[in-house]
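Batch job 17 of 40 flagged for manual review because the log was empty.
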Amino acid sequence: MKAKALLLLSITIVSWQQSQSQTKSKPVPVTCTTIEPQKIFKLDTTDKTRGLADNYYLWDNGQTIYVKMMNGSDAQKQMIERYAKEWERYGNIFFTFITSGPANIRVLLDNKGGNNSMVGIMANAIPQDTKTINLDTTSFVTAAYTHTAIVHEFGHAIGLLHEHYSPLSGIKWNKEFVYSELKRTQGWSKEDVDAQVFSTLNISYTQGTSYDPKSIMHYPILKGWTTDGYSMNWNNSISEGDQSLVGALYPKYGTRTKVSPRFYIDNFTKMEVIQNSAKQGLSLFPSFKITTAGAAGSVYFLAIFYDKDGNSIKAPAESNYNIQGMVGCYRGLKLAADQKLSANKSTPLDFELFIPYSAIPVPNSTEISARFIAFLKDGDELKNLYSSESVKFKIIK
């Protein structure tokens, strides 16, 4: 196996975890720490509709999305359902709130976790007992902001991104001031602010050439946040641009104009690690299901190795098992759309990742761990699909 350049291109190994990017202290109503897909910076001006969205994480057109409230009063649940359903007016997509059985989206209310959401079908990768949207009730300071926060997060849940990420916005950020303010008010690090505020997406994510400062998906820009005095408050309603975008992403008549591979992994249960003396290496058997839609795409399944302290094990530059400087192995598959496939859900085990002992530069009987990671490759785009918890074991050569 050779480490191809495509595997070295910005694989976000540890950033895509469902609990990461949460606020670190009691929030104020200025931001949402939405967990967003990996950002690729390649110029592409082919799309001609409006707004910011990720076509790789859209639900099927016309799909019913099942939503479950994990807690909350009856009044809160009714309010959230009412606000979420505002998106149904503009696109061919539907929210059905249920109290039992599996749900695509799970909503948790708390007083410390900030407002955040998985983007689109990324929610399907999250275990059923875990939230995919968090709504922080301490930020429900007014009726208008409560409405905005809920509609905003459900916008992310159908695949919309933060509008201020647009490369067409022209926002002149006063970065040092913003770093200071968000550390003071939200406890955010410089890295948090870079990811949640200053990120700029590939032009293709704009879905065209328009920047919509009135979008409900836009952050407020407070006084002092820009060098030219530009500021804006929260937008409290779905804008005309938002309406047009959702209508294009989920058309009520006809079909989508752009079809991308839309894959997700769910039902990951474990990764079995077997010391394979016959092959003089480790055989790893991740157990999961993958669903494909939209168009064909290439999927890469990886195992990355870590020491007992959780640091990635460094790979020699000349190693065939060097993935972005880390010890790892992978398999790639080209998958057609509209498939439901499973791996290692029956006996005998049917999907193996393998690495020889010689490629893991640690002494015998050392405790290490491995993490299963999957991503979609479509042209120059790399889209995260799954990242598991680490599996610990001793390597017996």
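Reviewer: the log was empty due to a logging misconfiguration, but the result itself is present. Confidence is low (pLDDT under 50) at residues 1-30, 34-50. Unflagging and moving on to job 18.
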